[in-house]
Amino acid sequence: MAKTLHAPPVVTEQRSRIPAGRVPRRAGSQGLLAAVAVAFTLAQLALVRPGMGLGWDEAVYVSQVSGHAPAAFFSAPRARGISLLVAPIASWSSSTELLRIYLAVLSGLGLFLALRVWRGLFPVRVLALAGALFATLWVTVFYGPEVMPNYWVAIGALAAVGCFLRARADRRDRAALWGLGASAALMAWMRPADAVWVVFPMAVLLVCARGWRRPRPFAALAAGLGAGALGWVIEAYASFGGLGARLAAASDIQGGLGWNIAVLDQLRSLRGQTLCRPCTAAVPEPQLIAWWFVLPLLAALGLAVAVRGRRTAGTLLPLACAATASIPYLFMIGYAAPRFLLPFYALLAIPVADALVHLVTSSRQAWRPVVVTAVALVLAGHLAVQYAVLQDTVDRSTAGREQWARTASELHRLGVRPPCVVTGQEALPIAFYAGCSSAQTDGHNASTTQADLLRTARHTPTAAIGAVQDGPPGYASGWPSHRFGDLRIQVSPAVGAGARG
Questions:
Q1: If we measure between CA atoms, which residue out of 263, 281, 290 comes closest to residue 386?
Q2: 3-state per-residue secondary structure call for 90-133
Q3: What is the rounded distance in angstroms from the CA atom of residue 353 to the CA atom of residue 298?
Q4: pLDDT in tens, 145-183
Q5: Domain map of the chain by residue range?
Q6: Longest pairwise C-alpha distance within the chain
Q7: Cβ contacts of 57 within 8 Å, gap of 6 or more
Q8: Sheet architecture: strand order including 462-467
Q9: What is the DSSP string of 374-410?
Q10: What is the model's pLDDT at position 18?
Q11: What is the DSSP letter of 446?
Q12: Contact of 134 with 178, CB cutoff 8 Å
């Protein structure tokens, strides 16, 4: 007979009279979680400069809802959830500062709500520590205020697993069912494929594990996934020739999904590379990656503590969902980006925090000060490393985005002003900064042909950007050429005609 997992009991607090001036325990627990979320928001505003320009992918997502520039080409793997999330700001304002503040506040609120779901499943001190561990990773702080979907998949994953366990423990908990559906919808709204990987262990339990087969949680999970992914599926048939064609195109853009061990690639990216493609750099120094090796050890200790305490499911399920969420990014693609593993880190945070609390509280009285000091010193060193990497990442990202803005200003000086078209090297973000359309004749973002581009260039200011050492594309060989730093900018004859007019 198959052994069944027992869900952890939901701890309900007894009702009692509370003397005047006393704060209820429930309110106090929420205050601790809220403090973690507020600190996370403040860290984003202080350490990730609100004025930092938009990155390449951010420009794609924002352009879909912004009036600042025409919508950029939207490739097959992308989903429109993050664009819609920022639409309340981006649809009427081009202020990057306002957008960053909005996302920082929203991401702090999301972390609070996701942690709040787990109250009663774990002690509040474990949840607060878990939130702090996740919220102090450089990759979490960097992507909290970014217009990118991965953080929101992580928040949805954390909330979904907590709601699933609550619904399993109490069949009358309707809020947990609604939360499960909403969390699954959030993940699928942001990245449908990631959502499927995250919910896979929960779906297996609902279908295959005796004692876990319940129609209502399954219906909530399926309805949430379907609602979140519906727009992506409809767009697949409207713009990509069907769901299968879109999945195939997405696989091609990601280098062809299949067996490919990318663990070393992820390690290389921990130095602060937002995208490691191709990933050929040396493995970072030990102090930058040590935490990555300690993480699974602490997670295993957390599982051992849970097994010993006969509350296995509450720890094993987030570990299982973390493992499946990481599979495509550790074993199926040929490049790396640290943000891909945000759901993995969020789900591991609670077992890891549980392990750390156990280390401190279970040690002998005589040794407890030593253990507490050692854990505090290790965490302080970890925090120092994370923020050193964060600072370097912010500096490099800011410099790159400022260069795009300078190039856009140069295009305006040369007469390439809206309505206009930009093609060539890094055309997509430069076009967004310049308020132009972007167009490519080849590559993953191919959206036009050379013939169509030439027809457009006859009446619309068009710029072809490339490296100085590279020759101009054949269709632009007769266009006036200008040098700007390391870039060569070819401008179409329509620019000169517009200037004369």
A1: 290
A2: HCCCCCHHHHHHHHHHHHHHHHHHHHHCCECCECHHHHHHHHHH
A3: 8
A4: 999 999 999 999 999 999 999 999 998 999 999 999 999
A5: 25-362, 398-500
A6: 86
A7: 147, 148
A8: 437-438, 421-424, 462-467, 487-491, 481-484
A9: HHHHHHHHHHHHHHHHHHHHHHHHHHHHHHHHHHHHH
A10: 30
A11: -
A12: no
Phi, psi torsion values for 34, nearest 5 degrees: -65, -35
Please name the residues in contact with 43: beta carbons below 8 A apart, sequence gap of 6 or more.
Answer: 135, 136, 141
Q: What pLDDT does 21 receive?
A: 31
Q: What is the pTM of this model?
A: 0.93
SS3 per residue for 201-243: HHHHHHHHCCCCCCHHHHHHHHHHHHHHHHHHHHHHHHHCCCH
- Two structure tokens written together for 331: 């074993």
Where the chain has pLDDT below 70, the residues are 1-28, 496-501
Q: What is the DSSP letter of 443?
A: S
β-bridge pairing 481-484 and 462-467: unpaired
> What is the CA 90 to chain-centroid distance, rounded?
19
Backbone angles phi, psi at 78, to 5 degrees: -75, 150
Cβ 286 vs Cβ 358: under 8 Å: no
Q: Given this model, what pLDDT does residue 16 score?
A: 33
Q: Which two tokens stand for residue 79?
A: 């989903």
Which of these, 197, 202, 230, lies nearest to 218 by C-alpha position? 202
Distance of CA 488 to the CA centre of its chain: 34
Cα–Cα distance between 311 and 303 in angstroms, integer? Answer: 9
Contacts of 425 (CB under 8 A, 6+ apart): 465, 466, 467, 487
- β-pairing, 481-484 vs 437-438, is unpaired
Structure token digits, residue 68:
């600042």
CB 493 within 8 A of CB 456: no
CA distance 30 to 12: 15
Summarize pLDDT for 393-441 with one digit per residue, the tens: 999 999 999 999 999 999 999 999 999 999 999 999 999 999 999 999 9
Is the preceding omega at residue 19 within 30 degrees of 0, hence cis? no
CA gap 44, 137 in Å, rounded: 11
Give the separation between CA 461 and CA 26, rounded to whole angstroms. Answer: 62
Euclidean distance between CA atoms 329 and 262, whole angstroms? 7
Please check whether residue 350 is in contact with residue 162, taking contact to mean a CB–CB distance below 8 angstroms.
no
